[in-house]
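Dig into these lines:

——
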Amino acid sequence: MCNKEKPWLASYDHGVPEMVEIPAGKTSRDYLEESLRALPASPAVFFFGRSITFAQLDELSLRFASFLSRSGCGPGSVVALHMPNLPHYLIAMVGALRAGCTVTGASILLTEKELLFQLKDSGAKVLVTLDMFFEKTAAPAAEKAPELKKVLVANVGDYLPSVKRALGRLLKKIPVGRVFPVPGKEVSAFTRTLAAPTPGRPEGSHANTDGAVIQY
């Protein structure tokens, strides 16, 4: 088709095809795992002086995927990520997709009422949030979300370099929020879900027609 009808094609780099053929048998999990293992020693994430390699992201996301699988979450289950641009977000997103789950990103600017709507509307079973948002927003919304089973709580300093983390906590530069039990929900630390030994690949049927993301 000519560029008059598709003017954006004129902006494509040389060698970029107009259409991409997606193999019927490959899923997002297959593509993710191929990418993670293509350059294992290369950095996937830079975070305030700390580098997380693709090999480390591979292992961490696999541990999170295994946690979801052990928790009964797989294709059709929704994992809500309620946090800003932190290593936890990438680990949880990749891990959820590897477990066959669907991811929904929840803005940190949402009110309790808005977060509750998204949790209920998406049918989220797992919520990953930060301790600084827990008391005022995440916990009250989680308590009223009928499908939600687990709440995983992270801290901004979890993946900081050890010296910066220690100084940040000593000088109270790292935001911290109060975490407490939520009736009917299992509340635990995000890092604790990654503490188990490296597991095998989660089993389960995944199709390339399954939903990967529900973005509000």
Notes: The mean pLDDT is 91. The two ends are 33 Å apart (CA to CA). The first helix runs from residue 28 to 38. The longest strand covers residues 124-130.
